[in-house]
Amino acid sequence: MQADVRDAARQDDVFEEIASEHGRMDGLVAAAAVQNVTRVLDYDVEKISEMMDINFKGVYLSARSCARQMKKYETPGSMVLIGSMSGLIANKDLFCAVYNSSKGAVIQLGRSLAMEWGKEIDGKPIRVNVLCPGNIVTPMVRANFNDDPTLRAKWEEGNMLGRISAPEEFRGAILFMLSDASSFMTGEHMVIDGGYTAW
Question: What GO molecular function annotations does the UniProt record carry, in alphabetical order (predicted)?
Answer without folding.
Answer: oxidoreductase activity, acting on NAD(P)H, oxygen as acceptor; oxidoreductase activity, acting on the CH-OH group of donors, NAD or NADP as acceptor
